[in-house]
């Protein structure tokens, strides 16, 4: 398996996942009716599955049996926090302000995780401020 093919698949699916989260957040905040189209229900899960599989493949291809370092541990921990914010913002929050707060916090968490991935540092953008 080609490392760069997997890397760019991961980057494209991460961008698509963020774009769908952004759009779905707007839909939730605008109180659109629950989408009935099957692609709206299936596509986010399919893309997020590709993100996870390509991420695991990258770890295997790039580092094999060695863990790349503390930055990846922190990144994965923040990805879990991001996923929790997505669930809260899109499904669990009852009031519009709660949904909006979780949605904005989720977007900020996503951007922070991206800086950890780019800089390979556990503090991400905070390490250069």
Write up what this structure looks like:
- The protein is mostly helical and 129 residues long.
- It has one domain.
- The chain has 4 helices and no strands.
- It has helices at 3-29, 38-63, 70-92, 96-119.
- Helix 1 runs antiparallel to helix 2, helix 1 packs antiparallel against helix 4 and helix 3 runs antiparallel to helix 4 (96-119).
- The longest helix has 27 residues, at 3-29.
- It is globular and about 45 Å long.
- The chain starts with a helix and ends in a 10-residue tail after the last helix.
- The mean pLDDT is 90.
Task: Give the SSE map.
Blueprint: H1 3-29, H2 38-63, H3 70-92, H4 96-119
Task: Label this structure with key terms.
mainly alpha; single chain
Please tell me the overall pLDDT: 90
Distance between the termini: 37 Å
Helix content: over 70%
Label the overall shape.
globular
What is the number of helical segments per DSSP (H or I, 4+ residues)? 4
For the biggest sheet, the summary is: none
Radius of gyration, Cα only, in angstroms? 16 Å
The total domain count is: 1
**Unreliable runs, pLDDT <50, ≥5 residues?**
none
Percentage of residues in strands: under 5%
**What is the strand tally?**
0
SSE string, helices as H and strands as E: HHHH
SSE-based structural type: mainly alpha
């Amino acid at each position: 398996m080609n490392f760069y093919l997997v890397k760019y698949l991961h980057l494209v699916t991460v961008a698509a996942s963020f774009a769908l989260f952004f759009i779905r957040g707007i839909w939730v905040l605008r109180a659109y009716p629950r989408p009935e189209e099957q692609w709206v229900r299936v596509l986010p899960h399919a893309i997020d599955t590709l993100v996870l599989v390509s991420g695991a493949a990258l770890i295997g291809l790039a580092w094999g049996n060695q863990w790349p370092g503390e930055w990846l541990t922190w990144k994965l921990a923040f990805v879990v926090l991001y996923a929790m914010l997505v669930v809260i913002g899109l499904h669990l929050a009852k009031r519009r302000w709660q949904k909006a707060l979780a949605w904005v916090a989720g977007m900020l968490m996503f951007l922070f995780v991206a800086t950890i991935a780019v800089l390979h540092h556990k503090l991400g953008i905070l390490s250069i401020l």
